[in-house]
Amino acid sequence: MSRLRIPLLPDRLRLAGVVIVASVIGYYSVFAPPGSGAIEMGPFGMLPYSTWLHLMAYTGLGGSIGYALYGRSASIATQNVTTFLATWGYGIAIEVVQRPLPDRTFAVVDMAVNALGAALAVGVWLLLHRYVDLHEV
């Protein structure tokens, strides 16, 4: 089976993507979150809205970190472990920053959801490594 070939953006742009995603997460984690309590449940009424936001945000952050690391000299396993740990570590740091803030909440459950988002991002990268060839232009 042939793999889909897609050009890889330059390193600076990939790093800029990580900084932008992390900055947006950081901003909305410290200041008023999207929805500001107006929405209580996420899609399908299965999980709270804040849980969905955490899952989407940290899957996105993990995806951007994985993309920034793609093609490095490190092994795929090392890239994926780094992606997971960097994403989850950022989520833990954000929770620690939120702890003293009066309008924010420190929650171990959020850290677990952040880890799940990081793991989903790694899972997507594992699939991409199998079916897609990202190459430098």
Automatic annotation (TrEMBL):
Keyword ATP-binding (UniProt): no
Membrane-spanning parts: 12-31, 51-70, 106-128
Key word Transmembrane present: yes
Organism of derivation: Halopenitus salinus
InterPro entries associated with the record: VanZ-like (IPR006976)
NCBIfam families xrefs: vanZ_1
Residue span, VanZ-like domain: 60-128
Name of the featured protein: VanZ family protein
Any single Pfam family the record assigns to this protein: VanZ
Keywords: Membrane, Transmembrane, Transmembrane helix
Classification lineage: Archaea, Methanobacteriati, Methanobacteriota, Stenosarchaea group, Halobacteria
